[in-house]
Amino acid sequence: MAQRGIVSFVKKVGTLIDSMSVKGLDRNYIEAPTRPWQIIIRGNTNQSSVTMNTEGNIEGLSYSAKPYLKTKPSQYVGLWVGYRGYGLGYTINVGGDKGTYFTLGATGGSYGVNVRIHSFEENSPEYGLESDLIAEEDKDDWNDIHLKDPIKVRTLIANGYYLFNGKRFSYAAAYDQSVLQKRSAGSLMVGAMYFYGRIDYSSPSNGDLIYLMHGLGRVKLWQGSVGVGYAYNWVPVRGLLVNAMFMPMLTFVNKIKVYGYATNVEELMEDPTFWSENIDNAKWDEWFYNNVRITPMGDKTFNSGIKVNFDARLSVTYNFGRYFVNAYGQFNNMRYSHQSSYGHLNDWFINTSIGIRL
After folding, report:
1. Which of 68, 84, 203, 228 has the fewest CB atoms lying closer than 10 Å?
2. What pTM value is reported for the model?
3. Which residues of 187-219 are buried (b: 16+ CB within 10 A; e: fewer)?
């Protein structure tokens, strides 16, 4: 009896999901597949980059420092099993940076919700320094820096969309293939995004970098954005679907918390060893990094003001019989500023999948 009850409950849930998947839809534009189950092999490639800029003067000599951090593209593979777009999956890292990447998403006919958390470390950032303090023959050395302690970066992006033409336009058809878009259609959409970012290089071994960044050793960012955009599903031939989405976003919550540190770099610059030409690089590094110090000086939170960012997506899907293949990518751009320090973070990913309906 208990087994019959469980089977009956599962059937009722399935019937409810089946009805929800086509409720209110124009069947001339959107159709639910006859086979409700999906088994999907998924792959993901993602990359994040952070650019920081600062400029100023040291003893009357101008400089600009532009640390640039970019992760190596990371690859993940996984398996997903679900019913009408509702299911579970598991993903593992198979290459790229040593960071972690976590995603969570839900997609319906008129909405989409995504959460992504990316953490990584970088100890060999691309770095540029223009200053009269650096001899011409030494400038190339600043393009090949290996930090003693890595810069640590963590980002969290959560966004959601609502589409007004859910009757004829399907977000799910483009991004989880739980329904089929039969004819081309577009939709005006609204969206919201929350972003959190943390950049931390507050280690004594990075005292020289902290000094060049005006004592800035750690940054936390919070951004809340809303926007209006447009999405379009193009069906050039039966089975093929191309989706494009673009949404400018107004960032109305844009806070930055900066952590200041004092260094003894100027004191070390007064030591003859700092400028000595009679010491090789290895010994100079040993002397400098054994003596450099940083001291926490507190933190302060600022409002960076209103900024304009954007969110963009592109997806291509091909359905053939009970099988389908899909590739889609998303790009996010976030900017911040504080006094003479400013920067931006770019985050992109590409998902690929091949699936079968049962």
Report:
1. 228
2. 0.75
3. bebebebebebebbbbbbbbbbbbbbbbbbbbb
